[in-house]
Amino acid sequence: MTINYSTQDNVAIITFNDPPNEFISIKLIEEASQALEKARLDDNIKTVIFTGASKSVFLNCFSPEEVLKMSEAIREHRKTGLAEPRFAQTPLRKFWEDIDNFCKPTIAAINGMCVGAGFELALACDIRVASSGSYYIGQTDIQMGLSPSAGASSRLVRLVGSGKALEWLLRGRSFSPEEAFEEGLINHLATDSALSLAKSICIELGNRPGPALAAIKQLVKSNQGRTTKDIVDMEGDLFANLLANDENAVSSVKEFISNNYKFIKI
After folding, report:
1. How far is CA 119 from CA 62, 160, 200, 248, 250, in A?
2. Taking every pair of C-alpha atoms in the chain, what is the biggest distance, in angstroms?
3. Strands lying side by side in the sheet with 174-175
4. Are 193 and 130 in contact (CB under 8 A)?
5. Which residues, 6+ apart, have CB-to-CB distance to 263 below 8 Å?
6. What value does the CA radius of gyration of the chain take, rounded to a whole number of Å?
7. What digits encode the pLDDT tens for the residues 137-167?
8. How far apart are alpha carbons 101 and 232 in whole angstroms?
9. How confident is the model at residue 179, as a pLDDT?
């Protein structure tokens, strides 16, 4: 198992646990999606927390080995000349949309490195809290020659504005938890653990009526103009095109693997 699912009172806790690197894999997404659906169907659950089992990683980027497999599959399919499904609408990509549109409040309890698609998962959550520590948070795709693929070009803009979002995406900027709090990437910086703070927020939300919580989420998420789905569709197409056509992107992913999965802190 790549995730642990537990409940405490009316809170579901989905813990990512796929050592040693905590990369996002197809298996992790499948298991986390099943856990999220379990939380949705449980009427006793009013909130969901996402966190990491590792002391140093919340959730990493996509597994670079699986990204290379995606590239090969897309290229082979395009050789056939047959129409292909939009990359943004594949089951792999649906997970982030499910979190964003989940009927119950979601909290990312960031307890360690949170980059790439892992950061995009945190962006899809309603509330982000982070523990202090010597790790970084940010969208680092450009360092592998890739563009975002799971919603950052939409959700990051809505969070901090297009000016900052564009610069950070272009530069592959990452931030310490303290810097992330100052920039508005996270809602709260925990003095103790992120999970403890997330649980305390859930206690408060647990005293609120579930239908009202769901209605408020729907209202806020539907009044932002162009839908996230429209933008993420475009984002997924661009990501797939990079994997299919850009040799530098593929080479960068391979270099990332050979460099022991290390990003450059900017």
Report:
1. 11, 14, 22, 23, 21
2. 56
3. 57-59, 113-115, 137-138, 174-175
4. no
5. 115, 140, 143, 172, 174, 256
6. 18
7. 999 999 888 888 888 888 999 899 999 999 9
8. 14
9. 96
| Structure-block tokens of residue 122 | 């945190």
For 37-95, how does the pLDDT look when each residue is reduced to its tens digit (9 = 90+)? 999 999 999 999 999 999 899 999 888 898 888 888 888 888 888 777 766 666 677 89
Secondary structure (DSSP) of 138-202: E--GGGGT----SSHHHHHHHHH-HHHHHHHHHHT-EE-HHHHHHHTSSSEEESS-HHHHHHHHH
| Residue (of 129, 169, 130) closest to 151 by Cα position | 169
| DSSP assigned state of 264 | P
Per-residue pLDDT at 32 exceeds 70: yes
Instruction: Please report the pLDDT score of residue 226 as a whole number.
Output: 67
The structure tokens listed for 145 are 């020659």
Token pair for residue 15? 């813990």
Q: How far apart are CA 126 and CA 105, in angstroms?
A: 6
Neighbours of 207 (CB within 10 A): 9
Residue 223: per-residue pLDDT:
65
* Contacting residues for 108 by C-beta, under 8 A, at least 6 apart: 49, 50, 51, 58, 114, 121, 122, 125, 127, 128, 129
**Which residues is 4 bridged to in the sheet?**
15
Q: Partners of 57 in the beta sheet?
A: 113
Of the candidates 129, 189, 185, 147, which has an alpha carbon nearest to the alpha carbon of residue 61?
147
pLDDT in tens, 99-111: 999 999 999 999 9
Token pair listed for 183: 């920039």
Residue 106: exposed, middle, or buried by beta-carbon count in 10 A (0-12, 13-18, 19+)? buried
User: Structural domains in the chain?
Assistant: 3-196+207-258 (3.90.226.10)
